[in-house]
Amino acid sequence: MTQHAGGANRVGAYRAGADGARGADGAATLAGGEPTAGLAGSEPPAGRGPREGDAARRFVMDHLRGAIMNGDVVPGQRLVEAELAELLGVTRASVRAALIDLSADGLVERIPNRGARVRAVPVAEAIAITECRMVLEGLCAAKAAELATPAQIERLTGIAGQMAAAVAAGEPLKYSALNRELHQSVHEISGQTVAADLLQRLNAQIVRHQFQLSLRPGRTHVSLPEHQAIVTAIAARDPAAAEAAARAHLASVIEALREADRP
Fold it and tell me: Which of 150, 168, 208, 237 keeps 20 to 30 A from 259, CA to CA?
């Protein structure tokens, strides 16, 4: 990707999550034990963005939200204003404003006199978030069953087929990406923009838990038929069955989170 001036050689300095060690709390750390700063292997969006003002704030927010959603930054990882400002080619004030907004969304926590870091979400909160997702995902699935066109149903069926192939090939990372694509497609088809926006905010807070679950042995074999049931119900234009399938899937996720937290 094309980077902002001054940022071309700085991506390596932001490789905290992938190359650093981890502390007892799971946060990425440098050799000296200090939580690392920046974006793990992430690059600024292509082209030069706005340098200051509200447009720059939104630019930084979108970039950091995407980095969190993609797992480029990890819970507990420090987000240093000066370094982010230089990497993204914006003012520190724009970075600070974006971090305040991301804190309001539950993605970042700001610690007095210590700056900001990616917020770590405990399992109990991840379960509570997933319970909220259950209602919203059910709504979107039901609406999708009412509104889906033949082309959209074909698209969902195609994604489900790719998910099955990923499971058969033992590719959990590919399966995880397709899983996210399927859910996003259902949200789009549903036309429920309010629910879709809420789900995006909720999902961003628990992306690390979702990623860890996707790597658990046997989890994809449980998850796949649950997603296939959602697609089958939407294809059959059965809103009640689609909602029930979506809720059953999220109930399964909640149980998996509880199992993962048991000693």
Answer: 168
